[in-house]
Amino acid sequence: MCSCSCSHEGHEHDHNHGHEHHADALIPVIGVVTDIRVDTPDVKTFRVTAPEGGICFEYMPGQCAMLSIPAVGEAMFSITSSPTNREFMEFSIKKCGTLTDWLHQIEPEQELTIRGPYGNGFPVDDALAGQDLLFIAGGIGLAPLRSVINYCLHHRDRYGSIDIVYGARSSSDLVDIDELKNIWPTLENTNVHLTIDREEEGWDGHVGFVPSYVKELDFSLDKTVLLCGPPIMIKFTLASLQEMGFDKTQVYTTMELKMKCGVGKCGRCNIGSKYVCKDGPVFRCDELDELPDEY
Amino acid sequence: MSAQILTVKMENIGNLFKAIAADQKLYLPLEQAGQVQFLPYDPADDSQKVRLDVLNTVRSAKDLFFPQSENMVAFKKQGKKIDIIENREKVEAFTVFGVRACDARSFDILDRVFLSEPVDVSYAERRARGTVVTLACNEPEETCFCETFGIDAAKPDGDITTWIADGLLWWQANTNKGVKLTDKLLSVDAGLFVDSTGEAKALEEQQEKIREIISQLPLHGLSLEYFHKEELKTIFNSPKWQELSEACIGCGTCTFVCPTCQCYDIRDYDTGNGVQRYRCWDSCMYSDFVMMAHGNPRTSQVERFRQRFMHKLVYYPANNEGIFSCVGCGRCLAKCPSSMNIVKVAKTIGGEANV
Amino acid sequence: MQNADREINKEKISVAEMAKQILEQGRADRLMGWKRGEFFYDNSPAVFENLSELDDFVYDLFCGSNLSKFLVKESRKDGKIAVLLKPCDRYSFNQLVKEHRIIKDNVLPVEIDCDGMLDIDKIRALGIKGIKKITVDGDQLQIDTVYGPKTCAREDVLLMKCLTCKDRVGGDRFELVKEIEAMSSVERYEFWRSELSKCIRCNACRNVCPACTCEKCVFDNDKSGIANKANTDSFEESLYHMIRAFHVAGRCTDCGECTRVCPQNIPLHLINRKIIKDLNEFYGEYQAGEDDFSKGPLTRFDLDDVEPDIVMERGGNK
Ligand SMILES: Cc1cc2nc3c(=O)[nH]c(=O)nc-3n(C[C@H](O)[C@H](O)[C@H](O)COP(=O)(O)OP(=O)(O)OC[C@H]3O[C@@H](n4cnc5c(N)ncnc54)[C@H](O)[C@@H]3O)c2cc1C
Ligand code: SF4
Ligand code: SF4
Ligand code: SF4
Ligand code: SF4
Ligand code: FES
Description:
The structure holds 3 protein chains of 3 kinds. By secondary structure, chain B is of the alpha+beta class.
């Protein structure tokens, strides 16, 4: 482990691999937006690299980063790219406030500040290893899962079957990524199940909410589930899974609370005695039962 | 550590302050517009009034290590380019004199937050450069309940402990930093202190007196037994939070005067020719504290009020071997506009043990 | 027009008895009063819903807090709430009714007498520590402490607002304002610099202020350009206090709560009193909250209103 207390704590870290070295976890580095993709009417995916190219820091699937435009705002975002990608990092960002509005009107070459990685990430090398995986995402919830999915596909032999259930309000709200349409469905032992909330012209796929779709799909109960999306969707999908016979210990999800520091000190993101920025954002659903109902 | 006990006559205490301030900043409890604050001592300014009789400053000594607001980093934006300019204040060595036992213990509580990985650099720097000289409490207030937390007002922690007894200031170094400061003072002025080791009867009597008073205070024997992590959800779900929080006006005073409150905000300020990022104290009592895109998980003052006291009495201890995040300084008792405070909470929620 | 109906203590029974009768006779569903504290001086505002809760009811020398502002929230709940109003509190209540912040149909205002409330901080400032009990002995207070008995004059430890109570004669509330006006600009700057730099921006003054009931205060609005949580520089703390004083101008009833709650004992009421004094001089004597219907000096326009340049004429730029 790196002996400095820099933000890259906990990972192999070469002080000379590019960006300036900081001793302070709260001080960001510069990232350059090299590409912007429109995914849905209110979600864009931003490709970010260090000024000299490559990723800004090492991270694991499910971890997050604080992005900021100084004087506009700073907010936490899941890193949606897989760490196996050494060229760039990606963030899928929903337009919903000061910073995200601003980011939605920038153009490539724009610099921003970035610090991280924050959070625990998914247990890709422990609990998930060797398992059949069921990914369930709603809306922007695909962002953190995409990182894990690509990570698992990169290390395909370490995991069993992979099923991906993804739903959104309408077909235009389904994040328009290449993988979803052209790559994942074509891979061996990998299935993609898409759904939208309401009937729509030109859509011949499944219609219905994610929680009921999951039930219809009648998955075998030995899978490990990774569940991400809006709080309400998580709540109902978890209930569906339990009705089907899944145990909460089989289900991992991510929590979202207001964050400022990202390192468990500013006191902002706690649920009971756990800090979502440090002890989360990934929780096993049975762990959530231990926490007070305040999220 | 050496048990050497030095004394200096109270009438010569000015010489001691001058000697300490000779090559570093010295913070003393000074009077400012009728209130007492830890402010930089200026030997040349004889209008300054040192108040060693006042127990607790309104702003606790945490301000010196975790200031109410401090610059973190600056940015320059030019077109699509952003430059990061590190401009955090460089911390010079300093000493603070007159810290009470409760505030001295609050540093341990903050250390567990700010010195755990990843270390908070600016707090760590201030802790490393600052020497803490504590002063025993000859006259504790009725609001004091440091004893509940195993704090001995007659023998405060700190790099150096001092007492006032028998017209003398008694001085004992506890840590290497304390010994270093003592040695430096002696090297500048060998006659500053008298070695009173082994002749500390007056000091011991004073300590006895303090402990005697503490045992007579109204909050003596306050029990926090009920507050442990096994009861987390029961306490959280107690219906009593409703009535307890009724009078709370969400001002945040309790959090700002509290020596153990740690919450902060990070904000940007457009200076006109750049952007200054600073951090400042924040309060979980404020309505927008956890406001976010999909709403506010703490919609009313009941939840915010509960958060503050749950943090002090349950959450922090759950993460820190049962240590409470309160040192019984009594500031929230004395300063809340509605007279709500941690003691009322502890007695109402943790009822049984306190009747 | 006339003020909303009031409950007045005609029979001169004790306030506790009044409170009991109101709940007993069902004249209100709830009653807002004060609840006994941990010590004898730390009473808290509280809502009582039934007779057994009234066991903790208290009305004594430490009920300085003004209950009016709580009604902004309480009057929006179901049922009728009775509220105890000291003479000074009635002004805030009226003003809040006037501003439609209190739904008056849901409130039963109850006027109670008051002989002046004590300020525990003033007692402490006399160096009296470890306070256990206080007994009133004519003009004197006998104070029982951990460090033996002490005494002090009652008048010396009354709350600031009680010294110039609108219900009592005597005391020029503008005395200190005049002293400050008489200072040179340098002295005046120094005075406020020294006072205001003690501010810890805890917001107690704003949150307690019955005139500050904005749903979103400018200082909490990130988009206002003046949102801040800390005194980032010495300019900012003055900015906060001055902006606030202007926002409450003409509506401030001089209830004295801001000064009572300030943990740093900043005499905030002097800023508001300066504005009140100016308003009186410009537009004629006016007491905000005197009634719950009339228009205030700044919300009314008369052809003979003063012109802004009066400020220059009066030497405002000296
Ligand atoms: C661990 C984690 C991972 C995340 N990952 C992603 C991701 O991958 N993609 C993504 O798009 N988002 C993600 N988010 C959410 C993102 O951080 C928030 O949406 C963030 O608020 C956006 O910042 P903003 O400045 O645009 O919004 P803000 O300006 O902060 O506003 C967000 C919303 O909160 C409200 N609000 C904020 N402050 C106030 C206030 N004081 N008063 C009233 N209302 C207020 C606003 O009205 C608005 O609706 C994540 C959050 C967390 C914690
Ligand atoms: S709480 Fe204890 S240490 Fe603090 S001032 Fe009171 S007696 Fe001293
Ligand atoms: S408990 Fe008291 S000091 Fe704290 S926020 Fe509430 S009213 Fe303010
Ligand atoms: S909670 Fe109150 S008594 Fe405890 S340390 Fe904080 S201010 Fe002091
Ligand atoms: S300071 Fe001004 S904006 Fe804020 S609550 Fe008071 S009147 Fe409203
Ligand atoms: S974001 Fe600061 S504690 Fe989690």
